[in-house]
C-alpha cells in the first residue's frame, strides 16, 4: 500500500516532466516554422555572402563567380600598394568627415526649432522630413542641374554677385564637397524624424521644474535636452556613419567617381573593380575591408560613446 | 513674443533652403529649354509638354509600374515574414529564442554593400537577372523589421495569449487574429518604410536590369540623364517629379505613423 503511493508520487513528476519536454519540443518546432522564411532569406542573402566574399577575397575570381586560382593574400597586398585604392579610402574617410557631423548638427537644429509650440508646426515638420521621400537617383539628378557649370543655380548666384563660376563636379577640389552637400541634404529627413521623436519623448515636467528654478532657454537646452537626447544622438550617429560608408547612387549620377578618383568612394570602387574591370577577387577584398570598417566603427562607438550616453 | 518671431524666421529660412531643390525641380519641369539656360527660377507659363516628352523618350510609365510592383511586393513580404519571426521570439517559449534574436539583430552590422557581389553571383546562378524575383527576394526579411515587430509584440500583454490558449487557440490563429490586428500602427510604419526604401533602391536594380522589362524608375532616371543631357534638363526634371511624387505623397500621409515606428525602433533598444 505505502509502496504504491510512493510509486505514484514518483511517477507523477516524471510524467509531468515528459509532458513538459514534449511541449517544449512542439514549441521549438512551431517557433522554427514561424522563423523559417526570415532565417532562409537573411541566412542566404546576408550571412552566406559574407563568408563567400571572404572566401572570394583569397582567390582570383572572374565576373561569373568562378574561382580561377588561389591568390592567398595577394588581393589584399595589391590593394595595399594600389594608389587608386588609397585615394578611394582617403575620399571615403573625408566624405564621412564632411557629411556626418554636419548632418547631425543641422538635423538637431531643425528638430529643436520644430519642437517649439508655435502655430503651423505640422507644416514645417513635413517640409523638414521631406527629403526622406527623395530617392538617391532623383535627389542626385536635381543636384546635378543645381550644380551645373553653366545653367546651375549655384553658379548663376555666384556670377550674379561677381564671383567666378566653380566647376562643382569637374574640379577635384570641389567634387567631393559637392557630393557631400548633396548627401547631407538627402540624409536630413531621416535624422530629423528620429531626433524629433527623441525630443518629444522627453517629459515636459522636467522643463517645467527647470523653469521654476529659473533656468533659461540655453540652460534648458544644454542641461536637459542634449543630455536626455544622447541615446538618440548616439543611435543617429552610428546610422549616419554606416550610411556614409555605403554611399553609391549619388557618386554614380553626379561624378562617376571622378575627377581623378577624387569621389571614388569605397562602394563605387567595389562596383567598378567588379563590374567594369571584372576582378571579383579584388572587389571582394575591398568588400571585406568595408565590412571590417563598419564593424570596427560600430564597436568603437558602442565602447566609448555609450559610456557617456545618459539614459533616462 | 520676440522669441516667437526668431523661431518663425528660423523655421521659414530653413524650410525654404531644404525644400528649394525639390521646388526648383518642379518649377524647372514646366520651363522651356531657353528659360533653363537663362537661369530662370520660375516658368513663364505652365505647359505639360515636358511631361509628355518624359513619358515618350523612355518608357517611364512602364518603369513606374515596375517600381511599384517591386516596392509593393517587398513591403507585403517584409510585413509577413518579419512579423512571423518576431512573433516566435516573443510569444513562443523555446530554447534559443535569445540566440536567434541576437543572430537576427547582428545582421544590422553586415552592410548590404559588402554582400552585393556574392548576391549578384547567386542571382546569376539562379537565372534571376532581369526578373522581379531577383529584384525582390533578397529584401523579403530585414533585421530592422524583425527588431521593430519584436518591440511591438512585447508591448502586448502576455495574459492575452494565456487566455486564448485556454480556449484552444493555436499560435497561428493568435498571430492572425490578435497579434497582427493589435499592431496596425507599427505595421503601417514598417510598411511605409519598406515601400520607401525599396522604391528608392539604386545599386541592386542597376546591376540586375539589363533591359527595360523589369527596370525600375530610378535606373530609368539614369537613362534619361544620358539620353537628354545637355539640352533637355526640363524633360529630365519632369521625370524626377514623376519619381518623387508617389513617395512624397506617401511620406506626407504617413509621416506620423513613420515617426512613431522609427522612434520606437531607435529608442527602445
From TrEMBL, chain A:
<keyword id="KW-1003">Cell membrane</keyword>
<keyword id="KW-0812">Transmembrane</keyword>
<comment type="similarity">
    <text>Belongs to the binding-protein-dependent transport system permease family.</text>
</comment>
<dbReference type="GO" id="GO:0005886">
    <property type="term" value="C:plasma membrane"/>
</dbReference>
<feature type="transmembrane region" description="Helical">
    <location>
        <begin position="174"/>
        <end position="199"/>
    </location>
</feature>
<dbReference type="GO" id="GO:0055085">
    <property type="term" value="P:transmembrane transport"/>
</dbReference>
<feature type="transmembrane region" description="Helical">
    <location>
        <begin position="220"/>
        <end position="242"/>
    </location>
</feature>
<feature type="transmembrane region" description="Helical">
    <location>
        <begin position="126"/>
        <end position="146"/>
    </location>
</feature>
<keyword id="KW-0472">Membrane</keyword>
<feature type="domain" description="ABC transmembrane type-1">
    <location>
        <begin position="89"/>
        <end position="301"/>
    </location>
</feature>
<dbReference type="InterPro" id="IPR035906">
    <property type="entry name" value="MetI-like_sf"/>
</dbReference>
<feature type="transmembrane region" description="Helical">
    <location>
        <begin position="93"/>
        <end position="114"/>
    </location>
</feature>
<protein>
    <submittedName>
        <fullName>Glycerol-3-phosphate ABC transporter permease</fullName>
    </submittedName>
</protein>
<dbReference type="Pfam" id="PF00528">
    <property type="entry name" value="BPD_transp_1"/>
</dbReference>
<keyword id="KW-1133">Transmembrane helix</keyword>
<feature type="transmembrane region" description="Helical">
    <location>
        <begin position="28"/>
        <end position="51"/>
    </location>
</feature>
<keyword id="KW-0813">Transport</keyword>
<dbReference type="InterPro" id="IPR051393">
    <property type="entry name" value="ABC_transporter_permease"/>
</dbReference>
<dbReference type="InterPro" id="IPR000515">
    <property type="entry name" value="MetI-like"/>
</dbReference>
<feature type="transmembrane region" description="Helical">
    <location>
        <begin position="279"/>
        <end position="300"/>
    </location>
</feature>
TrEMBL record, chain B:
<feature type="transmembrane region" description="Helical">
    <location>
        <begin position="99"/>
        <end position="123"/>
    </location>
</feature>
<feature type="transmembrane region" description="Helical">
    <location>
        <begin position="129"/>
        <end position="149"/>
    </location>
</feature>
<dbReference type="InterPro" id="IPR000515">
    <property type="entry name" value="MetI-like"/>
</dbReference>
<dbReference type="InterPro" id="IPR035906">
    <property type="entry name" value="MetI-like_sf"/>
</dbReference>
<keyword id="KW-0813">Transport</keyword>
<dbReference type="GO" id="GO:0005886">
    <property type="term" value="C:plasma membrane"/>
</dbReference>
<dbReference type="GO" id="GO:0055085">
    <property type="term" value="P:transmembrane transport"/>
</dbReference>
<feature type="domain" description="ABC transmembrane type-1">
    <location>
        <begin position="64"/>
        <end position="254"/>
    </location>
</feature>
<keyword id="KW-0812">Transmembrane</keyword>
<feature type="transmembrane region" description="Helical">
    <location>
        <begin position="233"/>
        <end position="255"/>
    </location>
</feature>
<feature type="transmembrane region" description="Helical">
    <location>
        <begin position="5"/>
        <end position="26"/>
    </location>
</feature>
<keyword id="KW-1003">Cell membrane</keyword>
<protein>
    <submittedName>
        <fullName>Glycerol-3-phosphate ABC transporter permease</fullName>
    </submittedName>
</protein>
<keyword id="KW-0472">Membrane</keyword>
<feature type="transmembrane region" description="Helical">
    <location>
        <begin position="68"/>
        <end position="92"/>
    </location>
</feature>
<keyword id="KW-1133">Transmembrane helix</keyword>
Amino acid at each position: 500500500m505505502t509502496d504504491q503511493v510512493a510509486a505514484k508520487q514518483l511517477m507523477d513528476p516524471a510524467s509531468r516532466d515528459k509532458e513538459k519536454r514534449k511541449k517544449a519540443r512542439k514549441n521549438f518546432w512551431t517557433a522554427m516554422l514561424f522563423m523559417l522564411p526570415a532565417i532562409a532569406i537573411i541566412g542566404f542573402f546576408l550571412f552566406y555572402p559574407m563568408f563567400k566574399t571572404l572566401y572570394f577575397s583569397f582567390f582570383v575570381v572572374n565576373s561569373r563567380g568562378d574561382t580561377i586560382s588561389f591568390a592567398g593574400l595577394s588581393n589584399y597586398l595589391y590593394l595595399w600598394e594600389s594608389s587608386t585604392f588609397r585615394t578611394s579610402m582617403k575620399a571615403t574617410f573625408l566624405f564621412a568627415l564632411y557629411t556626418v557631423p554636419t548632418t547631425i548638427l543641422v538635423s538637431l537644429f531643425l528638430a529643436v526649432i520644430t519642437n517649439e509650440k508655435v502655430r503651423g508646426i505640422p507644416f514645417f515638420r513635413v517640409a523638414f522630413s521631406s527629403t526622406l521621400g527623395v530617392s538617391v537617383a532623383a535627389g542626385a539628378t536635381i543636384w546635378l542641374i543645381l550644380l551645373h557649370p553653366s545653367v546651375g543655380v549655384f553658379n548663376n548666384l555666384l556670377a550674379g554677385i561677381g564671383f567666378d563660376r566653380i566647376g562643382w563636379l569637374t574640379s577635384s577640389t570641389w567634387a567631393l564637397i559637392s557630393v557631400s552637400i548633396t548627401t547631407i541634404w538627402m540624409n536630413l529627413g531621416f535624422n530629423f524624424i528620429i531626433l524629433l521623436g527623441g525630443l518629444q519623448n522627453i517629459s515636459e515636467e522636467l522643463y517645467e521644474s527647470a523653469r521654476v528654478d529659473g533656468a533659461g532657454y540655453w540652460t534648458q537646452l544644454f542641461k536637459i535636452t542634449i543630455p536626455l537626447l544622447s541615446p538618440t544622438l548616439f543611435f543617429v550617429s552610428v546610422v549616419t556613419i554606416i550610411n556614409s560608408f555605403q554611399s553609391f547612387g549619388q557618386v554614380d549620377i553626379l561624378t562617376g567617381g571622378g575627377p581623378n578618383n577624387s569621389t571614388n568612394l569605397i562602394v563605387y570602387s567595389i562596383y567598378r573593380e567588379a563590374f567594369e574591370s571584372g576582378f571579383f577577387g579584388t572587389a571582394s577584398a575591398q568588400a571585406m575591408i568595408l565590412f571590417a570598417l563598419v564593424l570596427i566603427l560600430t564597436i568603437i562607438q558602442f565602447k566609448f560613446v555609450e559610456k557617456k550616453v545618459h539614459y533616462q | 513674443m520676440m522669441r516667437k518671431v526668431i523661431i518663425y524666421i528660423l523655421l521659414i529660412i530653413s524650410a525654404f533652403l531644404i525644400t528649394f531643390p525639390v521646388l526648383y525641380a518642379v518649377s524647372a519641369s514646366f520651363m522651356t529649354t531657353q528659360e533653363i539656360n537663362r537661369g530662370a527660377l520660375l516658368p513663364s507659363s505652365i505647359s505639360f509638354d515636358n511631361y509628355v516628352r518624359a513619358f515618350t523618350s523612355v518608357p517611364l510609365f512602364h518603369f513606374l509600374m515596375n517600381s511599384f510592383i517591386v516596392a509593393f511586393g517587398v513591403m507585403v513580404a517584409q510585413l509577413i515574414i518579419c512579423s512571423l519571426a518576431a512573433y516566435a521570439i516573443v510569444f513562443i517559449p523555446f530554447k534559443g529564442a535569445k540566440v536567434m534574436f541576437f543572430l537576427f539583430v547582428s545582421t544590422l552590422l553586415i552592410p548590404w554593400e559588402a554582400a552585393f557581389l556574392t548576391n549578384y553571383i547567386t542571382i546569376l546562378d539562379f537565372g534571376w537577372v532581369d526578373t522581379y524575383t531577383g529584384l525582390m527576394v533578397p529584401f523579403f526579411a530585414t533585421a530592422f523589421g524583425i527588431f521593430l515587430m519584436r518591440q511591438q509584440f512585447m508591448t502586448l500583454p502576455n495574459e492575452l495569449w494565456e487566455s486564448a490558449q485556454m480556449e484552444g487557440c493555436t499560435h497561428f490563429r493568435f498571430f492572425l487574429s490578435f497579434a497582427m490586428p493589435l499592431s496596425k500602427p507599427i505595421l503601417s510604419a514598417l510598411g511605409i518604410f519598406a515601400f520607401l526604401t525599396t522604391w528608392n533602391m539604386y545599386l541592386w536594380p542597376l546591376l540586375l536590369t539589363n533591359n527595360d522589362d523589369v527596370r525600375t524608375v530610378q535606373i530609368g532616371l539614369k537613362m534619361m540623364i544620358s539620353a537628354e543631357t545637355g539640352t533637355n534638363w526640363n524633360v529630365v526634371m519632369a521625370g524626377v517629379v514623376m519619381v518623387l511624387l508617389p513617395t512624397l505623397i506617401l511620406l506626407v500621409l504617413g509621416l506620423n505613423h513613420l515617426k512613431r515606428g522609427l522612434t520606437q525602433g531607435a529608442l527602445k533598444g
